[in-house]
Amino acid sequence: MTQDLDLSNFWMPFTANRQYKAAPRLLVSAKGMYYTSHNGRQILDGTGGLWCVNAGHCRDEIVAAIQHAAATLDFAPTFQMGHPLVFEAATKLAEITPAGMDRIFFTNSGSEAVDTALKIALAYHRARGEGQRNRFIGRERGYHGVGFGGISVGGIATNRKAFSGALLPGVDHLQHTHNLEHNAFSRGQPAWGAHLADELERLVMLHDASTIAAVIVEPMAGSTGVLIPPQGYLERLRAICDKHGLVLIFDEVISGFGRLGSAFAAQKFNVMPDIMTLAKAVNNASVPMGAVAVRRAIHDTVIDAGPAGAIEMFHGYTYSGHALAAAAACATLDLYKREGTFAQAAAMSPAFEDAAHSLKGTRHVIDVRNLGLVAGVELAPREGKPGTRAYEAFIKCYEKGVLVRVTGDILAISPPLIVDAAQIARIFGTVGEVLGTVE
Ligand SMILES: Cc1ncc(COP(=O)(O)O)c(C=O)c1O
Predict the structure, then answer these.
(1) Most ligand 1 atoms within 8 A of CB, residue of 253, 280, 317 to mutate
(2) φ and ψ at residue 425, rounded to 5 degrees
């Protein structure tokens, strides 16, 4: 199949294009826990696609809902118009968001959700008469997508450096929470590091609270290589935000929809943000969709600020709540509820944790960290060639029929939440085997 395919036109995202096109890996179909590759191999999905296929691939109910929507209402605007599915999707989503965070703005991606959340924070302060609060605080190693807002508050140097002259002004960053000296091989939340949240107080002292609109963090940092928040850290961030009137945004694009064993990380950690950004598993990644869940009081402040009859917030996307995406979201959220997918993830977490930590002592492994159904396996980098060892391990796992994700020198594992014990054993067993063969 690859011989007939022209690979030159598609400029691949976040990919070494020349390297990939020299030795392509194509996935042609998927079902449940498995992909099928172009050469007919079954690949066990250890990554849930890209941390997004939480219910497993090509679920019949979701496929049927999309097919029905496509044949019934291909597109209807949500600017000054609407369609039932988008309202229904918002209602179903609001059933599982934390209490009071039940106002939903739809987008098409996590990146757009982040931009939207940042704008909502600004709009909120402006509506309250504090329009001078226009500074954002992000965190080093944070990933918030690739819009200019997202890379500005994000903290991944490679994603920022080429565009550094055009980032949002007035953004500052907390330090990241990764520390191998104190926290290597922690099971669940590491014990050390709550005090790192106090840096927010220092930034408030520096900039003054009256200039700061919002703080945005991933409650569990995924893309940078799975950083689990230290015990007490998020609680402290919440308390400092409360003290200074800062909007707290949790970017739950990865941590949401059962990944950590609860609907959202907010409930898992029992720390409630003011705004949450969502995407990916909102509809099992079957049609592009993102969402922002907003505390009702913030929504009402913005909505009630202007005169009746005027548009309250000049923001939205042609496809905010696209009918196919909304239909898929309704079917997915029903499926999660019916099957108890989040509880299933929680029940499988101890076996997953044990399997992940069985890699302790394996060649090259300098850390294993985990929570719910996500784990990061950090490898010692090769001298002068960072990332190459983990990349080679990723390729070898793929050759052995297991898909994992590589980011720098970290392998990330985040299977669909329907994964069973034998599949968990196979994923980590393959990683261990491969590490024995990688130099
Ligand atoms: C925490 C977080 N925020 C935002 C995004 C961006 O989402 P998208 O790629 O859908 O724009 C991602 C993607 O992985 C993410 O992990």
Answers:
(1) 253
(2) -60, -40
